[in-house]
Inner membrane transport protein YdhC
Amino acid sequence: MKFLQEKNKFIATILAFAVIPMSGLATDIYLPSMPSMATEFKLPESSIQITLTLFLISYGVTQFFAGSVVDSYGRYRVSNISLGLFVLSFLITAFTKDIMVIYAMRILQGVLSGFAVVSKRAFFVDVYEGEKRKHYLSIMTIVWSVGPIIAPFIGGYLQKLFGWQSNFYVLAGYSLILLILELLFSGETLKVKKPFQFYFVLKEYDLMFRTKDFFYGMLMCGVSYAMVIFFNLCGAFIIEHKMGYSEVIAGYVSLILGFAWMAGGFLGKALIKKAFLPKIRYANFIQIFLILMMIFCSYFINNIYTLVAFAFVIHVTAGFIFNNYFAYCIGRFPNSAGVAGGLTGGVAFIITSAISYGIVAIIKPEIQLQVAEGYFVLGILGLIILSITKLRKAHI
């Protein structure tokens, strides 16, 4: 086994940061291409939208057990295998003319993203300690959010210049470069391997599911992120097919809304010392008020500017709620932070994918008003969860 050398620690850290956004890149880079894919495959919008849902579900499920796997078999090996299979799966996605093959590859890519991201999260815990560890983990969160921001912006230009397949060629090339550099400069960071203890993981999960504040926190994370994915599923179709704008404009819209999500996260960090539950409730009330304003204005004004403006402020509130609750859930069980993080991420992404795709399938948004209606359903779901949540003061 090749272990990480001290002289390569800085380069390996940079490579770890480069792997972290892979899940966001794989989900969002082809969003502006979805309408073109539907046209080329001669399929309804829902058949292309489900490719994103399948990715998110497999990504979420993988996080349930990925932590235990990388603790047993090592971070380096799991990460490299994931990168190698990424290259193969992205190339198959680009070459195939069969939508069922694309479905299978998207499921595989979600699984690989789960393993790759969890491996690199563990890397920072292995290599750094104390304040340095906190510093790098904080940077990691910001780097993770960069993927969904820049991916559709890049994807819009790729679609315009080269077609939808180019998105997956770029992802394959990016994965191959990372794999080569990992083999040259990185190495194993796990000092002591632990046997895979499935019973122990189930026992921990049982405890966490029975802890009400943690359970409701996972639900809130899922509902909050569903607002973003809901727009991702229908936004490009509305902007390109209904409003008549280009793939590049759809990419710019996703870029702007990505900054909204990041702004919500930074706002959450800025207000971290404020009382937990009251600030979440205020954010939810503001969110519902903004959604109601969007519904009202939709009867008078309906264009890309109002659509993006309302989506922006709503996504800021969603990012704020998600950031606060995700941090709360991870810190709720400090002695099992890895398991708690995996469970929170897994449940949140499964809820996100199921709810967002379900709302899109039922409403079939084609205009601003229908987008607002989808947001309203999610906002009310958040209000219901917060209404039944009873956080014990000791953990706020």
User: Anything to note?
Assistant: The longest helix spans residues 130-162.
